[in-house]
Specification:
This protein is an all-alpha fold. It contains 8 helices and no strands. α4 packs antiparallel against α6, α5 runs antiparallel to α6 and α6 runs antiparallel to α8.
């Protein structure tokens, strides 16, 4: 299925690259020389290319969604089985809140990454390489601009990932803290009610919640 998704993605990228070329021919030849038959012919080809690209995109979305969801389900199941085999010492070492986060939020993040891998991380390089090839074919001097700009953009993306990584690590720790706070409250809810500690628990949760909000905003700003 993964290879089939990549194949659909390649077809989609090729169709995206062909459309500007066909449009350029329509303007340079059909409109300039007032050849209506040529315009209709190339317009029909453009519609066909658009249709094929749309079909490939829909197929890719369906396949990538199924693959990522199955991957997430299998990973979640394997993690649960692994947690069952952990010793009491290891469970105390990781912490219940951290294990819950790994089983839920972390798996969802990996699942989304797998989905994005087939939708963005593969398509972007294909479009980039295809654009350079098309630019070389159309205008060699213009392609030099691409060859200069692409490495610079790649370097900036790499630097951005290195800068943003610590922020997302802090976000994961903040999620662990919220899970831990909520678990402690639910475990001792009778004690909280008996001693009327609702205000304290609300303030404690709000503090963790505010910390997660601030860290998440910082991470998204950098990203």
């Amino acid at each position: 299925p993964f290879c089939l998704a990549i194949a659909c993605l390649t077809v989609e990228a090729a169709c995206d690259l062909l459309q500007p070329t066909i449009m350029a021919k329509i303007i340079d030849v059909g409109v300039k020389e007032k050849q209506m038959d040529y315009i209709i012919s190339m317009g029909a080809k453009m519609l066909m290319v658009t249709g094929v690209g749309a079909l490939a995109a829909v197929s890719r979305n369906i396949i990538s969604s199924n693959v990522s969801q199955k991957f997430g389900a299998d990973l979640r199941s394997d993690l649960f089985k692994k947690i069952q085999k952990l010793s009491i010492e290891n469970i105390d070492k990781f912490g219940t809140a951290s294990l819950v986060t790994r089983l839920t939020n972390d798996v969802t993040q990996v699942q989304n990454f797998v989905n994005g891998l087939m939708r963005i991380f593969v398509k972007a390089p294909l479009l980039c390489i295809g654009s350079i090839i098309m630019a070389i074919r159309l205008n060699l001097s213009m392609s030099i601009v691409f060859l200069i700009v692409v490495p610079i953009i790649s370097l900036l993306i790499y630097m951005n990932m290195n800068i943003s990584y610590p922020f997302f690590t802090k976000t994961q720790k903040a999620i662990d803290k919220i899970n831990s706070t909520m678990r402690e409250y639910l475990s001792g809810v009778r004690v909280v009610k008996a001693f009327n500690r609702f205000k304290y628990e609300v303030e404690r949760f709000e503090k963790s919640n505010e910390e997660l909000k601030d860290v998440s905003i910082s991470a998204l700003r950098v990203n």
